[in-house]
Amino acid sequence: MINIILPVDFSEATDKLVEGAVKFAKETSGKIYLIHVAPSDIGFAIGDMGFQYFPEVEQNEIKQELLQLNTIEQRIIAQGIDCEHLLKQGVAGDIILEYAKDKRAGYIVMGSHGRSNMYDVFVGSLTKELTRRSPIPVLVIPIH
């Protein structure tokens, strides 16, 4: 069995990415390890008084993201694929690579979308970073 790391960001591309990862997992008898990395600064805001921290904002956001992860995990399991999920806060690239190493992953599945500069528009900045840094193969799924 191949362990597959599937980072998700809950963007509009997540459904297509999950669909591609499930197809890949079925073809390889793989298990999907779903991960979402939330930024460390979720509860911070800048206002007239400078930086302020609102723990209730962070707690609510984390709770919503966990619900979304659980929903995606249940969709994957319903398709006959073994799956578990994890939510962590921090630097996405570092956490994903650490998780992949811990789970002895055979692949990391990423999407080909991004939000800045022309290369990133087609590949995605996190995808670009992981393809450069990862000792584990990164399977890039086109998101259109």
Describe this entry's structure for a reader.
- The chain has helices at residues 14-28, 55-78, 92-102, 118-123, 125-133, and strands at residues 3-7, 31-38, 44-47, 50-53, 83-89, 107-111, 138-141.
- The strands form 2 sheets. It has a 5-stranded parallel sheet with strand order 5-2-1-6-7, with helices on both faces.
- The model is unreliable at 114-123 (pLDDT under 50).
- The protein is an alpha/beta fold and 144 residues long.
- It has one domain (3-141): Rossmann fold.
- It is built from 5 helices and 7 strands.
- The relative contact order is 0.20.
In terms of topology, how is this protein built?
Elements: E1 3-7, H1 14-28, E2 31-38, E3 44-47, E4 50-53, H2 55-78, E5 83-89, H3 92-102, E6 107-111, H4 118-123, H5 125-133, E7 138-141
Parallel strand pairs: 1-2, 1-6, 2-5, 6-7
Antiparallel strand pairs: 3-4
* Beta-strand fraction estimate: 25-35%
Structural class: alpha/beta
What gap, in angstroms, lies between the N and C termini?
29 Å
CATH architecture tag? 3-Layer(aba) Sandwich
The CATH topology annotation reads as Rossmann fold
Number of helices: 5
InterPro entries: Rossmann-like_a/b/a_fold (IPR014729), Universal_stress_UspA (IPR006015), UspA (IPR006016)
Protein name: UspA domain-containing protein
Family: Belongs to the universal stress protein A family.
Structure in a nutshell:
This is UspA domain-containing protein. This protein has 144 residues and is an alpha/beta fold.
